[in-house]
Amino acid sequence: MDYRNLLNEHQYEAVSTRAQYCRIVAGAGSGKTRVLTYRISYLIGERGVDPQSIVAIAFTNKVANEMKTRALDLLGGMGEGLTVSTFHSFCAKFLRKEIDALGFPNNFTIMDEDDVNSLIKSIAVDFGFKKNDDIVKKAIGFIGYQKMKGNYPEDIIVNKHDAPDFKKSVEFFHEYEKRKVAMMSLDFDDLLLYTIRILQEFHIIRHKWQNRISHILIDEFQDTNDVQYKLVKLLMRPDTCLYVVGDPDQTIYTWRGANQKIILDFNVNFKDAETIILDRNYRSTKTILGVANRLIANNKKRVPKDLYTENTQGAPVEVKILKSREYEAKFIVDQIEKIKREHPLVSYNDIAVLYRAAYLTLPVEKELMSRKIQYRIYGGVKFFQRKEIKDVLAYFRLIYNQKDDISFERIVNVPARKIGDKTLDILKAEKNAQELSYLEYIRHLEKFTTALPPKAVLGLTALVNLIDSVKAKLDEGLEAYPQLLQNFIMDIG
């Protein structure tokens, strides 16, 4: 492959570098994803690096999939075994193989944000609070903050002078961890923290993974937090190559723990580290870049660079200050109609309105509707966050992990089985008294004296029997999983 002609001078330098530690400072629109994918291709195709020894980390699953697809296309079948994933995906796969070192089952369930909130609200009710009390929000925020810092309840010291809400939040945290472990579940933070714990405590496992990995490449390195950075260093041996791409000027996730010092101090923390700056922008006009460069130059913590482009000068940047959202919406739609008048061949499909948050769309939508302009909203609820999708996944998780009480509570009355809140409270109290999960208790309901209504018992027993039947068929492995699960969904109704 002719890398020199496919890349600009600085991109080629970044792709072909032989430095063990390399920091690519990639300005906006400078082709950083291109550089990363070509770097992977170059390592495998030109340097003969084993694809199985390369781990590339991206910020989102979407970018990871795109990077892997592009790299494999460049390699033409030579990239089998290549790992391109997010930190969380990498750790999830690691734990499926290694978590038994901690005495934890590898069929653990991964809880998403909704599951975490549901569990904490359930704890609140058992603590005598209502689900919407202020302490619930505080406990959710407290637990998230502590785990982002790498802390578990045993790491937190409570003094008698601490505020009552702090003390209560620590109580929530202890109970949250206790119940989560009982359900054989991990949250997203656990994926990283359990991986780190295994790598720290079990030298044989750490050396095994260090010996597997010769090259680590990380995208969006400016948004790396301390926990992620600790994980990276644990995966490295003295001769591991670390290649990071990012831009301190684009750090936007400090509120989620991103530590800008990690990229800024890269050449301090790694001796003889090379820094390559990608400063040619392919996306914007000269005018936009001029404004951006003058604005970002005021930042104190950055790697100095001036983006340039060979694109056209472009229209001037305008700033409008308007009295209200309604005036703003009117101005936006006026501009759209002006574009249509001046450029008759332009379609509404060619015009986009960008906004910071979903709730800001309403005034613009009203204005568009009043002028009979058709529009489409992009974004909204993600596929895996849709209620019906989460319901189906909850059923699948129960097949996989019979201790997953959060999933059970989600679907126990979906579709309706005459299991109201009062019935669920009775069931919860009875199964807790026996120290069993919901499924375990219902499966052996005939052994216990129950206050559940007879209709509820029938519905619950039928549900558990169906789940057990599907699990047995899956374990036999005689039928295709997709068809079995499809039939399961149909049988549920």
Descriptors for this entry?
single chain, 493 residues, alpha/beta, 6-stranded parallel beta sheet, two-stranded parallel ribbon, 8 strands, globular
What is the gyration radius calculated from CA atoms? 27 Å
Largest sheet: 6 strands, parallel
In spatial order, strands of the major sheet run 3-2-6-7-1-8
Residue fraction in strands: 5-15%
Number of strands: 8
Mean pLDDT: 93
Structural class by secondary-structure content: alpha/beta
Helix residue percentage: 40-55%
Q: Which blocks of ≥5 consecutive residues have pLDDT under 50? A: none
Shape: globular
SS field, number of helical segments? 22
Helices and strands, in order, run as: HHEHEHEHEHHHEHHEHEHHEHHHHHHHHH
Spatial gap, N to C terminus: 54 Å
Account of the protein in words:
This protein starts with a helix and ends with a helix. The protein has helices spanning 3-6, 9-16, 32-45, 61-75, 87-98, 113-126, 134-148, 164-182, 188-201, 203-212, 226-235, 260-264, 266-269, 286-296, 325-342, 361-370, 387-400, 405-411, 421-433, 438-443, 454-476, 481-492, and strands at residues 21-26, 54-57, 83-85, 109-111, 185-187, 215-218, 241-246, 274-278. The protein is of the alpha/beta class and 493 residues long. Helix 4 (61-75) links the parallel strand 2 and strand 3 (83-85). The chain has 22 helices and eight strands. The strands form two sheets. A six-stranded parallel sheet has the order 3-2-6-7-1-8, with helices on both faces. A two-stranded parallel sheet has the order 4-5. Helix 2 crosses helix 3, helix 6 packs across helix 7 (134-148) and helix 17 (387-400) packs across helix 18 (405-411).
